[in-house]
């Protein structure tokens, strides 16, 4: 849903997200690799489907995301995500400019 709305220009105009190529990050049984409700015989309306709720989006000229994955920790019902970026930055030498940015 987020990707579709971003493509339509309805939300986060100009922002980017690297393609997702990892398993859904939500909703897990705590301290487990099992999705919540996956062991139930009868599915109910209250059971959430696995989803990508944890995301990284970025904005900026010269910013490039080179990796995007999830962390395999079972402390929560989420799997956190992480990204590595490269950034081209402009160094300001003027003292006047530096103090105005602080």
TrEMBL record:
Key word Hydrolase present: yes
InterPro entries the record matches: Endo/exonu/phosph_ase_sf, IP5P_plant, IPPc
GO-annotated molecular function: inositol-polyphosphate 5-phosphatase activity; phosphatidylinositol-3,4,5-trisphosphate 5-phosphatase activity; phosphatidylinositol-4,5-bisphosphate 5-phosphatase activity
Pfam families: Exo_endo_phos2
Keyword Hydrolase tagged: yes
Every Inositol polyphosphate-related phosphatase domain range: 1-83
Recorded superkingdom: Eukaryota
UniProt entry keywords in alphabetical sequence: Hydrolase
Family of the protein in this entry: Belongs to the inositol polyphosphate 5-phosphatase family.
Protein name from the UniProt record: Inositol polyphosphate-related phosphatase domain-containing protein
Native source organism of the sequence: Genlisea aurea
């Amino acid at each position: 849903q987020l990707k579709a709305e971003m493509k339509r220009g309805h939300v986060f105009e100009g922002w980017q997200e690297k393609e997702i190529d990892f398993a859904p990050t939500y909703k897990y049984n705590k301290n487990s690799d099992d999705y919540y409700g996956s062991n139930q015989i009868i599915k109910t309306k209250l059971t959430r489907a696995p989803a990508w709720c944890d995301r990284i989006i970025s904005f900026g000229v010269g910013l490039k995301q080179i990796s995007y994955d999830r962390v395999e920790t079972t402390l929560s019902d989420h799997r956190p995500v992480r990204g590595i970026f490269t950034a081209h930055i402009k160094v300001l030498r003027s003292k006047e400019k530096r103090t105005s940015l602080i």
